[in-house]
Design a protein that fits this description.
Length: 272
């Protein structure tokens, strides 16, 4: 082959593909730089938002970075004449196939994103969800970790958590303690009510507002139902409830108040 032809061919290749190669390298550098900048910027913005969970911050930063890198790769391929429209169609079809195969996992992932965005509970909150009560220890994109009252570790898939009713016992600063006790008709009602009010007033934990309520709720066949409602700080709820039951029993014993055992019942059993 003539040397001139070889040189001319090489020059043509370098001219055509060399410029494309340089353009591809430039696009890669720019895309990589932009992805890193977007990642850091998203982390900084998330850090300033006090209500945004750290897990969600990392997720958003990662998504922004990989989205830019994906567009960068497509732009690089287009530099070399690759038909990106067909490539995108193939990737879309593959994504649908993978999505169908991983439908359950993606459902937990989507639920995790919703939990991190809407924040029905935070780490450290006491919650009841999916018939389980515990303290939230971690919230990931696929599962929520609870510590049960006996310190047993429980992992719940986020699909179960987001799709169930959630009771957050730590959402508000105050909670109401509800008790109901039935006393026999042989007791003086006004004296029993005064005794219960005195017992509550002797404890510093009940809040002055709303005022504690101690009222006769109903007249049964064998007893009078007394309803007790006391507002306390959420952190004091469980201990105060136990203490109140114990002190009332002691006062009833000391004063000779007869509890109608057959009808005695407690409303709203204590939760963490």
């Amino acid at each position: 082959m003539d040397m001139h032809v070889i040189v001319r061919s090489a020059t043509t290749l370098l001219t055509v593909y060399g410029l494309k190669l340089i353009g591809a390298v430039v696009i890669l550098i720019v895309g990589w730089t932009l992805s890193s900048w977007a990642n850091r910027a998203m982390l900084r913005l998330s850090g300033r938002a006090s209500r945004l969970d750290p897990t969600l911050s990392l997720f958003l930063a990662s998504v922004s970075r990989w989205a830019i890198l994906g567009f960068t790769i497509i732009a690089v391929l287009s530099q070399f004449g690759v038909e990106t429209t067909s490539l995108i169609a193939v990737l879309g079809a593959a994504s649908i196939a993978v999505g169908l195969a991983m439908q359950g996992t993606l459902s937990h992932f989507a639920s995790g994103v919703m939990l991190l965005i809407f924040r029905p509970f935070r780490i450290g909150d006491d919650i009841e969800v999916a018939s389980s009560i515990g303290t939230v220890r971690a919230i990931s994109l696929f599962a929520t970790e609870l510590a049960m009252a006996d310190n047993v570790q429980l992992y719940l898939p986020n699909g179960m958590v987001w799709g169930a009713a959630i009771k957050n016992f730590s959402a508000h600063k105050t909670r109401r303690v509800d008790l109901s006790v039935n006393v026999g008709y042989g007791n003086r009602l006004d004296a029993v009510l005064a005794m219960i009010r005195d017992t509550i007033a002797a404890d510093p934990r009940p809040l002055p507002q709303p005022e504690p309520q101690v009222v006769a709720g109903a007249l049964g066949d064998m007893a009078v139902q007394i309803i007790i409602r006391v507002w306390v700080r959420s952190a004091d709820y469980l201990v105060f409830r136990y203490d109140l039951v114990e002190r009332l029993k002691q006062r009833f014993d000391d004063e000779g108040v007869q509890i109608a055992l057959a009808e005695h019942r407690l409303h709203n059993p204590p939760a963490v």
